[in-house]
Design a protein that fits this description.
The protein is α/β, with parallel strands linked by helices. It is built from 9 helices and 14 strands. The protein has a 9-stranded mixed β-sheet with strand order 3-1-6-7-10-11-12-13-14, sandwiched between helices. The radius of gyration is 18 Å and the shape is globular. It starts with 6 loop residues before the first strand and ends with a strand.
Length: 287
Amino acid sequence: MLKRPPRVAAIHDLSGFGRCSLAVILPLLSVMGVQCVPVPTAVLSTHTGGFSDIALRDLTDYILPTLNQYKKEDISFECVYTGFLNSPEQIDCCLEFFKEYPDALKVVDPVMGDHGKMYKTYDKNMCTLMRSLVSKADIITPNPTEVSLLLGEKYNVTPMTAQECKTKLLKLSELGPSTVIITGLQLADMSINNVGYDKNTGSFWRVRCSYAPVSYPGTGDMFASIVVGSLLKGDSLPIAMERATRFLELAIKTTFSYSTDTRYGVMLEESLSWLCREQVLDSYELL
């Protein structure tokens, strides 16, 4: 048994304004009793969704020296968790982290695109390299756009049947990860869901999401981070998925009620205390 909080090496960018990436990952994991050790891939003045004249500093040459020091100091991690990566070299750096911490839970949030489009920083080569990172992961958390990019399929806006969803989850698991979670997926009953597959038990899960007619940056970072924190604290997969879903519902609806600029992200500060409560969660379902 650990005599300290679990540690997560979080290999993500740090956007100063806009509530995403490390700016939300750090407080979320901390309030859940997990130590987040940031390994920034880049520092940006704001996130890239709708802002101009962004100040950006690439930190590729920082990542491996950080890893070397951690190994020299015998600093261990229970999880290595990757997010937005800015170059092929950064994907190689993440693979080195995975190699040096073979017993750590390996979580990849494959930040590649959204709303049916690949991000401008990505190309076919980066997608291929992301598949190599996914192949070494234990858990991945793609959105529907990233599902299509990882599988090399055309993005389809048509709602999926439960069986079609299971097929996608199985195909993603065949790439390597034992646990796959697809976020924000619309099913044929017109509900929005976070769906998951656990290869070890053969179980498929769904957690229904309340719909709000708005989209904020950073929600994928928040979802994956809460799943990581929940699993490290002993939650089952469906409970971890529901904890992340319910928090995001609260944060999104709170923010939506104030009609703030969506570029500013969700009002994380107004919602953090919810994660400190002992909530009984039982609204997850088998898919």
